[in-house]
Amino acid sequence: MKSVVADEQKLLERFMWLSIGATVLTIVLKATAAWVTGSVGFLSDAIESGINLIAAAVGLWALKLSAKPADANHNFGHARAEYFSAQVEGSLILLASVAIIFTAIDRLINPAPVEQVGIGLAFSIVATALNGAVGIVLIRAGRKYRSTTLDADGHHLLTDVWTTVGVIVGMALVWLTGWQPLDPIVALVVGLNILFTGYNLLKGAMLGLLSEALPQEETAVVHAFLDDYAAANGVTFTSVRTAAAGRQRTVSLVMQVPGDWTVDRAHDHADAVEEGMAHALGSAETIVHVEPLGHPTRTGPLEM
């Protein structure tokens, strides 16, 4: 089991290195487009990719930290580190959006000509194709391995793709019409779009840190397993609670068993529930509290 987890961790880290490599190349392409044309639209796009690079590096750090086992100071492991990565990424996106918006407003007030737009468009198109391919790969891997970091980074790259598409369309119109104010207007739209993206990332990270319950489809798996087990073994499950923390899944429940069962028998069933739940969810930590059938289940805080 440990070998499988270690192999999965190495694979996730390779995905983050793929993101970092692709982002470096994208920055070079977009910065070249901005330098050749003098376009604030292309510059705003390059700035966003620079934020992508920092975010990917933070994401790699978070993945390494989240894989560390539980210790004396972190009894439940380090899985929530991935949410800190998403928070950093969201915060950086917000800062980038503010910088882009101010730059665009300045260019509207102080216009400057845009040159060699055709060359800039060519560089941006290549960068868009690269970002799109890597973003799709990261999102699929994030969903498959339940990695908040990969999923956030993949969505960030796809947001970058749509941003660049908007820049390309705007700059193509500048090229065709010669209307220079379109350049800062495009940059302003890009900045507002990035602002919205950063807000959504921060919102998702905060929900994760607040121990949000498992997604609906996984909750359905939990209850389906418990219903089948209860019907086959004459037990009852109550007070079922779930929580997600990055790739870590936690299930807490009360298992009510016949009062004449021995401690050993109840313990064996508790072990079976833990192992079955881990198999059903693809890995999970299940906390089972055993009580006799008919015992009133406590739902509120303990009274001292």
Automatic annotation (TrEMBL):
The chain crosses the membrane at residues 15-36, 42-63, 84-105, 117-139, 160-179, 185-202. It is found in: Membrane. The keyword Transmembrane helix applies. InterPro entries: Cation_efflux, Cation_efflux_CTD, Cation_efflux_CTD_sf, Cation_efflux_TM, Cation_efflux_TMD_sf, CDF_Transporter. Residues 220-292 form the Cation efflux protein cytoplasmic domain. It comes from Corynebacterium ureicelerivorans. Keywords: Membrane, Transmembrane, Transmembrane helix, Transport. This is Transporter. Its main location: membrane. It comes from the Bacteria.
